[in-house]
Amino acid sequence: MHTEPLRDPARERAQGDTRPGTEVPAPLLAPLLDPLLDHLPAGVVVHGSDGHVLSANRHALELLGRGTDEAVGLEATVPAWHFVRADGTPMPPHEFPANHVLRTGEPVRDLVVGLPAPVAGGVRWMLANAYPERHDGRLRAIVCFTECTALQSTRLALEQSEQRLALALRGSTDAPWDWDMVSGDTYYSPRWWELVGYAPGEQEANATTWIRMAHPDDQSRIAGFLAELLHSGREHFGIEFRLRHRAGHDVPVLARGYIVRDAEGRALRMSGTTGDLTERKHAERRIYELAYFDHLTGLPNRRFLTEELGKVLARAARSQQYGAVMFLDLDNFKLLNDTMGHDVGDMLLRQVAARLRAALRESDHLARLGGDEFVVVLENLGTSKDDAIGEAQLVSRRILDALGVPFDLVACECSTSPSIGTTLFDGDRTGIDTLLKQADLAMYRAKADGRNTMRFFDPGMQEAAARQAALDGQLRDGLARRQFVLHCQPQFAPDGRLAGAEALVRWQRDGDHMAAPVGAGEFIGQAEASGLIVPIGMQVLEESCGLLARWARDPRLAGLPLAVNVSVRQLRDPDFPDALAAMLAASGAPAGRLTLEITENVFAAKLPDLIPRMQRLNELGVQFALDDFGTGPSSLAYLQDFPFATLKIGRALVHAPYDDGAPAHGRHLVEAIVALARKLDLGIIAEDVEDEAQRSLLADCGCDVLQGYLLGRPVPAAEFERMYGAAGTA
Ligand code: C2E
Ligand code: MG
Ligand code: MG
To answer: Which CATH number describes the domain made up of 172-282?
Structure first.
């Protein structure tokens, strides 16, 4: 620390000081002022007209970090002084405050000057003021300066921090704002105004601007939030709302901020940013749609329906009103999809969805469960069950009518129809899954009852379904335990010669006790419905190939054809011909002895590749018979297209009414069919022959082969072999 008093170089020079100086300084100030100057918390330096330092007070020497010897006499322009400007760049000597005053005669006010510390690094900042002063006609410069290092560092830090903030905000899309709650001043950034489509200044800005520019439906919520927030003592907050854009649309935003409070917790200032949530809301909406809506039709999906149905049931429980769940399935949709392609199928589903929506009231719920399944939920059908039934009937009538009009699908006009199952609910304990299951069961009944209709659920359906489910399990079990065995029914030529056999499957249900087997008629229907007919059919074919192979080695049975019934579902499998070919090869059965019987419903199924599939089997030697001809919706046209070898007529024609034993109408029909078969080069077999009158009539009419209880009942394959084979007669 310098403790010397303010020194007078002139006096010192007179006492032998030899340092250079062109000007002989006069006493600086009156002696009284000297101690005062020395204690002044500011540096004071007096420069002569040529720039030399004439004198400096103690504080000046201290601030400049020099002794008197080093300072006095120094020229202000010598490079010994290194000053920097406020921005840190070097200050050229002509800008030094003293030089500026001497050059211009003008004072310098509040100039920030930095003095780099020579060793320690860092800068000592000073605030300099300089004045010109005339003395003996000569100009002098008096420079006063005080240290402001702390202030300057704060300013620099603030500048940097502001710069950082500005950069960060430029990089973000958030819009800053600030509200001084004491003065009432507000600041809305340009980005904030951009959010609402205005330029800064276009709209009045005050503390309520952001609420005024919010969506009217959000304003009271925001005001409530603000009131609560200010009283809560919380410092951080965030609120979502919608701003109204100048163009008229809503901008979803999230305002987040910080509140400065005084010691009593009173809010003084609120500052924060408002972020645009538009994109996030879009993404959220998209995720929601993907999760809850069917992308094809835009309808709610199963998940949405299940959640919605929960609310509907709760409402029904409160209102004590009936409602209805309707399960809707398109008839023959699968066929259309398979034959016309999925694009056409999709188009149909979209149009169906649109028509359903149009046929329903705004308050009715409609969902697509997947595939061609739709669900309609009706609410508030009244407190009387009969009224509710009537209402549901009306709605289903509207749906049937709406879907009854043909659909226009690019290349074609197509018709479809729905089968609808309906169940009522009244808010009792019946759960969602149960209701959907009930409606589904009723829908199956509608299908079974001829489709294009609606059926109400009744508890009997549930019992039937339970029975069917149990039967399915048993069928599966039977399959695994190979309980399906073959019986054979003989077929004869009119002269009584054995002409062939039909393999009929039997279910040997209780293997251990060898209980009487049941006829195929009792379980084939259920196996068809559940699809189990496919594996059962494969076992039947395997057994049949085994039989044929064995018969081939028996001189009496070697030439005997065997007819095996196959289901349309088996033929649906494109691999069926190959699988059968492999079976024939593995067993060594003569393919030429195998006939496959298929029923007329094969035509209704309209399988796309059925004919080539049949032809492929024909090539192996396998033949086809059309079973139960004349009982289904057959069209004679099909007979020409399909490669059948035989027509089989049964009960409907064989048991046709007779007049006094004299064949009339029935006989003519049989004769006509035989003639037709001859024309088409088809063989003809009559089955279900139960009495002599039928037998002789059918023989007279020209039937090639006869089959029936009169001539021989189905018997286990082994018994058949004993009865008709070589071993049996030996
Ligand atoms: P279907 O092919 O028309 O078979 C003839 C049915 O009539 C057989 O009944 C047979 O036992 C019965 N039947 C034979 N003669 C007479 C008669 O004189 N009077 C009467 N009332 N009935 C007679 P089953 O075995 O119960 O078979 C019923 C139907 O089940 C068959 O009709 C056939 O469509 C189907 N089926 C039988 N076995 C199989 C099989 O292995 N696979 C497939 N997919 N269906 C089979
Ligand atoms: Mg048959
Ligand atoms: Mg038949």
So the answer is: 3.30.450.20
Distance 23 CA to ligand 1 centre (A): 142
Q: Measured in angstroms, how far is the CA atom of residue 504 from the centroid of ligand 1? A: 6
**Which of ligand 1's atoms lies nearest the C-alpha of 687?**
15
Ligand number nearest CA of 521 is 1
Q: Is ligand 1 within 6 A of the CB of residue 489?
A: yes
Parse the chain into domains and list their residue ranges: 9-154, 172-282, 297-457, 532-713
Taking the C-alpha atoms of residue 62 and residue 81, their distance in angstroms, rounded to an integer, is 15
| Contacts with 253 (C-beta within 8 Å, 6 or more apart), sequence order | 195, 240, 241, 242, 243, 274, 275, 276, 277
Q: What is the pLDDT of residues 544-565, one digit of tens each?
A: 999 999 999 999 999 999 999 9
* CB of residue 540 inside a 6 A radius of ligand 1: yes
Q: Please tell me the distance from the alpha carbon of residue 611 to that of residue 630, in angstroms, as a whole number.
A: 21
Say yes or no: domain 9-154 is CATH 3.40.50.1860.
no
Which H/E stretch holds residue 599?
A: strand 594-599
The CATH number of 297-457, from 3.90.1150.10, 1.10.287.1040, 1.10.3470.10, 3.30.70.270, is 3.30.70.270
**Which CATH number is associated with domain 532-713?**
3.20.20.450
What pLDDT sits at residue 401? 96
Task: Give the pLDDT confidence of 119-164 residue by residue, as tens digits.
Answer: 667 888 899 999 999 888 889 999 999 988 888 888 888 888 888 7
**Whether residue 567 has its Cβ less than 6 Å from ligand 1:** yes
